[in-house]
Amino acid sequence: MPFKKVNVKEEINKRLENDTELKKAYDHAQHEYEVVKQLVKMRNEMGFSQSDVARQSGLTQQMVSRIETVDNSPTLRNFIKYVDSLGLEIKIEKKSPKREYSKV
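Structure (tokenized):
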């Protein structure tokens, strides 16, 4: 059987369009990824290492690393310690009418 070249991004987008549950799960994962990515970016821009955050927050460096890993869900307490140690604050705002994530 010959090899068939597949456009992975196209295939993912097709499946997202056709499966609402998959789309929900994908959007949720994207949101988590964006939050973690923004935190790590801000930490780096401020010149802090994971060890610096650990010392400031009272968490271990391993805990900080896990917080910065997308597939991990830290406790709210540890997440707030992390955010506080960077001098940041969490704000809760109402979402715009329909927040859409870009396709793959």
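The longest helix spans residues 20-45. The chain has one domain: 12-85.
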